[in-house]
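Ticket #249: bound-state structure for GLP.
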Amino acid sequence: MAGNIKVVVCKDADEVARKCAGMFVEQVRNKPTSVLGFATGSTPEKSYAQIAKLAKAEKVSFAKVTSFNLDEYWGLDGDHDQSYRYFMNEQLFKHIDIRPWNTNVLNGKARFPEIECRAYEEKIVSVGGVDLWVLGIGNNGHIAFNEPGSPVDSRTRLVSLTQSTIDANSDGRFFKVAAEVPRCALSTGIGTIRDARKLVLLATGAKKADAIAKAVDGAFTPDVPASLLQDHPDCTFILDQEAASKLKK
Ligand code: GLP
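RESOLUTION: The complex was predicted; output attached.
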């Protein structure tokens, strides 16, 4: 196995979600003022439901937590039902006691994207950096909206989406047709993500198996953005058996 990535293989997506939720609730129990990083996409949905359930059952409060999301579609405002702000409100924030004003999602309608992106980076630094950030992975190995070719030291910026990402996000789970998917997004960079003290990447299903194998066992290369996590000091991939099926034994 290349690099430091720790791999945990679970029997199914429900176990992936329970493990991820356990890490988040534990993090907040140990440090109530934690700075958390969240992701969107269908993979973390089950984990968010589990976090809400577990936090309630174990009486762990998120009232002092600050959060940052990975990315947002360019051109969508937070009320749009496909915006990542809307997703987070629906999937997680309204089910826990996190304070809305402590949740940060890039503004897809910002008038000046460079100012929005710089302010986001500065805000992460001003609260002491991210303690634990959960990531998904695209079929082409992207993390956040850092498409293949994104530099290891990239920061929050306006990016273009590849056709493969546009197609993946318009298969009916989110957008219905490719024409509706914004062509650009505001995305934290690989450098922004690598600055988090702890990273956990979730992947489920056979469609992710190639990207996971390349990220874990392949070269450290911007061609596979998730491989740029190989030298992170504390990065765990939590996978179901299908997503792990092409890993070297
Ligand atoms: C989008 C998001 C990524 C996410 C990816 C995979 O492109 N920007 O952060 O990891 O989708 O999503 P899914 O979990 O739906 O496969």
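RESOLUTION NOTES: Residues 39-43, 70-71, 136-138, 144-145, 165, 169 surround GLP (CB under 6 Å).
TICKET STATUS: resolved
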